[in-house]
Amino acid sequence: MAADPRFLKYVDEHQDDYINRLAQAVAIPSVSGNISYVKDVEAMADFLISQLESLGVKTQRRPIGTHELEGKEVDLPPVVIGEIGNDPKKKTLLIYGHYDVQPALLEDGWLYPPFELTKDPEGTGKLYGRGSTDDKGPVLGWLNVLEAHKNLGLELPVNMKMCFEGMEENGSENLDKFIESEKDKFFTGIDCMCISDNYWLDTKTPCLTYGLRGINYYEIRISGPGRDLHSGVFGGTVHEPMTDLIAIMSKLVTPTGEILVPGIKELIAPVTADEQAKFEAIHFEMKDIHDAVGADVTISNDTVKTLMGRMRNPSLSLHGIEGAFSAVGSKTVIPASIKGKFSIRLVPNLTVKEVTELVVKYVEDEFKKLGSKNKCEVVLTHGGEPWLADPNHYSYRAAHKATEAVYGQAPDYTREGGSIPVTLDFANILNLNVLLLPVGRGDDGAHSTNEKIDTDNYIRGTKLLGSYMYELAAISKE
After folding, report:
1. Which residues are Mn(2+) 1-binding (predicted)?
2. What per-residue confidence (pLDDT) applies to 1?
3. Does 468 share its domain with 380?
């Protein structure tokens, strides 16, 4: 069922109102990871609640505990839940978004003040501002849909429940516990779920995302001397933790990205014919990734291999060394203890537990081969499982139709290389099919300086979300 043309017309006629709403939201610096902004995060929750209630949404502000932030115990940002419509004849859609943002300072290299939504003076339609695309723009897209229907006196085609959090950029702490505690209460009666917190692969082609890689983050901790030592006095006489660490880290992955930990390669799920076809159909050119990284340094020049390397195969990346001398100058120190940090992106069949067992055994075995008297410990600091949804589910079919209606083209079917742990929490705890329906483009720079959303994406994204609801209402569950 196509979207009501009155809704689509209303969206076109109220672009300025929608941009003003986004400007109000961007102006609230809701940085969840900095204690200086605690009140601003709270203010953003209040803004969202007032907006939702003005649109007829029955809204609740729910506390979810406390956490330590910069040495102080403070309240976690509240979860904002809301519902509108309870017609048993209609499907019930759950939507999720987050109202917190990454830190941003003008001196980081922003062209304009990061918490002032700024239209590109060159007339490109870009709207610069922290949170514009991650995730305030998409969240407000849903509010724009609600406003259009309310003001037009149109009935919503589905019942809606919504869950907005203020801690996504800082680990979504306690959200999983909240979902678990409400699974038989607020979260009952839901048919499917939609999250708009990711992006197109490029700048031209809309997409539907049905998979995310998980992540295991590790530290290799090596210690020996009781204190830092002078290399001129002790160099050549002791086992040096840094030397041991470099030796171990060099045996984790090759320069061409091959993971050297035994057993991991064998766990990777084989590529199915349907999967292969989806990857081959993706609108992607090597130039897209070259532009994104700023150089032609890709391991392969084959588009499908590159996409699979980014989306459906595991990867191991070395991130840094803690405890090493890194200041300007030439200090001749032998660090007494050192931490090497790396992560593995997980894909289906690679579980947090099984991969960790393989990693720990391999690192311990390699360390023994060094014959060092230092001590070595491998620690999993955090882990998140991979997620894969059924892209043939009726929710995806509805989103496919909505995309064709709004953009005049079929969407790509993509999997994200990164992780959105909350997706897995919702999918597993509530036993739901989750659709990732991106609004923004691949060059939006979500966590970077000069984050932006294009006006066209914001406005057509609003139409897309609304059209998806209409298609969802009409489509068969079979």
Report:
1. 134, 169, 447
2. 79
3. no
